[in-house]
Design a protein that fits this description.
It is a single chain. By secondary structure, the protein is an alpha+beta fold. The chain has a single domain, classed as 2-Layer Sandwich (Alpha-Beta Plaits), CATH 3.30.70. Helices cover 17% and strands 21% of the residues. It is built from ten helices and 21 strands. A four-stranded mixed β-sheet has the order 14-3-16-15. A three-stranded antiparallel β-sheet has the order 17-20-21, covered by helices on one side. The protein has a two-stranded antiparallel sheet with strand order 1-2. Strand 7 and strand 8 form a beta hairpin. The chain starts with a strand and ends in a 16-residue tail after the last strand.
C-alpha cells in the first residue's frame, strides 16, 4: 500500500498504487433539487452505449430514489454496514480544523482500502472492501421509486410535513454515473491491470482485450458502476462519452470543441453541468475562479462529493436536496451540507448567475463571465436554520466560453417575454 493525499478526507490514506494524476480531470455537478426523474438521461445513455446482447440489465446512467431505492439494490447501505462492522463507532468526521486542502475537516474512520487490511474474503485478501451483487439485485433499477420515508402520526400534523428546512415525509432522486474517481477502487482491484485512468482527462476505462471477467472491479467499486457482460464475459462501465469529450464528433464539433456527455446534454430538468478541471502535478486543483466547476466545488463548496468517506475521491459532485433530514445528508455527502444548503437557499448575485449555466450548452464550458444588470426585485428566502433573509435579484447576463475561449452560451437571469401578434385562429 502507498500513501496518497485525499483532499475530500483532509488527510493521507492508503491506496494500492502509487499516486499519479492527469493534467485535466473529467468532473461534473448534479443539482438534486431540480431533478424530476424523467429518465431522459438514462435512456440517452442506454440507446447510445448499452443496447446490445449481454447489456440488458446494464444502466451506466441511472436515477434512483432515496432513501429506499438503489441500483443495484441497497448498494450504499450494504457497504456502509460493512465498513461500520469493521470499524464500529469509528466512522466519524473531525470538523474542527478546516483549510484549502481539507475543506470538510478530517475523516477519522477507515476507507474501503484501509478496512481491507483486516478483511479476508473466501478467496483471500481484498484490496478494497466490497461485495458482488446477486442477479436479483441487478433487476428493477427503479425499485422503490418515489417511496417516501417518515411517519405522520396525526392527520392534523400533515401540514408540518411540508415545512422547510426539513420535511417529515421525504424522498429525493439521486442521479448516478461512474465518478471516474481520482483513486478508483476498480483499478486498484483488477488483477489483470485491465483498468486504466487516461492521463489527458482522467476518464477511467476497461481494456476489453485484457479483461477476463473476474469481476474484481464489480466487487471493489463502492458505487457499483462496473458491470459484468455475460455475453462477452468481460466487465464494462461508463466511458465518459470520451469521443465527445475529445471533440471527435464532426457534426457537433467541427473545430474539435469538447462536448458534454450524452446523459448531460439530454437532461430535461437542466440539473447537470460537466467539465474538465485542471490539476497540478501533485494532484491539487489549479486555481481557476472563472471555471464553473472550480467555483461551485472548491470556491463556494456548494457541490459535494458522493460518499467521500469511501476514499476513492469521486469526481462527481452534488448540490444536496434542501428538504431531506440533515443526518441522512451528512452520511451521504459529508459535513459540508449546511454550508452548501445555506448558499443554495439564498444564492448571492454571482452564484445565481452561475446556476444558469446548467445544461445551457452541449459544449463543455471552461470559463464564464458575468455582465452586470439592474436590480429587478427582492424576495424573502428561508434559510436551513429557519432564519428569514432578503435576497436581492439582479438582471445579470452570464456568458459561457468553450475550450478555445469562444462564447457558446449567453443566459439572462430574467427570461424575456415574447408576445405573438393575434393574427391566427389559435392565438391566445
Amino acid at each position: 500500500m502507498s500513501e496518497v493525499y485525499n483532499w475530500q478526507l483532509g488527510r493521507k490514506m492508503a491506496y494500492p498504487h502509487e499516486e499519479a494524476h492527469p493534467r485535466w480531470q473529467f468532473a461534473f455537478v448534479f443539482n438534486i433539487n431540480r431533478c424530476i426523474a424523467c429518465q431522459t438521461c438514462t435512456m440517452a445513455c442506454k440507446s447510445t452505449w448499452t443496447f446490445s446482447r449481454g447489456q440488458e440489465t446494464m444502466w451506466w446512467n441511472n436515477v434512483e430514489t432515496k432513501p429506499y431505492g438503489g441500483y443495484p439494490h441497497n448498494w450504499d447501505s450494504k457497504l456502509l454496514g460493512m465498513l461500520e462492522k469493521r470499524n464500529s463507532g469509528g466512522q466519524v468526521w473531525k470538523t474542527g480544523q478546516k483549510g484549502p486542502e481539507k475543506p470538510y475537516g478530517e475523516f477519522k474512520g477507515k476507507t474501503i482500502f484501509e478496512a481491507a487490511d483486516t478483511h479476508l474474503a473466501p478467496e483471500g485478501s481484498q484490496r478494497a472492501v466490497g461485495y458482488i451483487p446477486s442477479e436479483q439485485e441487478w433487476t428493477a433499477p427503479n425499485i422503490h421509486e418515489e417511496t417516501a420515508s417518515g411517519k405522520i402520526r396525526q392527520r392534523q400534523n400533515w401540514k408540518d410535513s411540508v415545512q422547510l428546512p426539513e420535511h417529515r415525509v421525504w424522498f429525493f432522486y439521486l442521479q448516478r454515473i461512474c465518478n471516474h474517481c481520482t483513486y478508483p477502487a476498480c483499478l486498484a482491484a483488477c488483477p489483470r491491470n485491465a483498468i486504466y485512468k487516461r492521463p489527458e482527462d482522467g476518464i477511467v476505462l476497461i481494456d476489453q482485450e485484457r479483461c477476463r471477467g473476474y469481476r474484481k472491479c464489480v466487487e471493489a467499486c463502492p458505487y457499483k458502476k462496473p458491470m459484468y457482460n455475460s455475453a462477452t464475459r468481460a466487465s464494462e462501465k461508463c466511458i465518459g462519452c470520451y469521443p465527445r469529450v475529445e471533440g471527435k464528433d464532426s457534426a457537433l464539433s467541427p473545430n474539435g470543441e469538447p462536448l458534454e456527455t450524452r446523459c448531460m446534454s439530454a437532461c430535461v430538468g437542466k440539473i447537470r453541468l460537466q467539465g474538465l478541471v485542471e490539476k497540478e502535478e501533485d494532484g491539487t486543483w489549479t486555481k481557476a475562479s472563472d471555471s464553473p466547476l472550480y467555483f461551485l466545488i472548491r470556491e463556494r463548496e456548494i457541490a459535494l462529493p458522493l460518499y467521500p468517506q469511501f476514499g476513492t475521491e469521486p469526481n462527481g459532485y452534488y448540490i444536496p436536496p434542501r428538504w431531506a433530514p440533515r443526518s441522512y445528508l451528512h452520511q451521504m455527502f459529508g459535513p459540508g451540507v449546511e454550508k452548501a444548503l445555506e448558499q443554495y437557499c439564498c444564492p448571492d448575485r454571482e452564484l445565481l448567475a452561475v446556476l444558469q449555466l446548467f445544461r445551457a450548452s452541449q459544449e463543455i464550458l471552461f470559463t464564464y463571465k458575468i455582465l452586470k444588470g439592474p436590480k429587478i426585485g427582492e424576495v424573502e428566502a428561508t434559510l436551513p436554520s429557519g432564519e428569514k433573509k432578503t435576497q436581492e435579484l439582479f438582471n445579470d447576463t452570464v456568458l459561457g466560453f468553450n475550450k478555445f475561449g469562444h462564447e457558446v452560451v449567453r443566459v439572462t437571469i430574467e427570461e424575456p417575454t415574447f408576445e405573438r401578434p393575434g393574427k391566427h385562429v389559435n392565438s391566445i
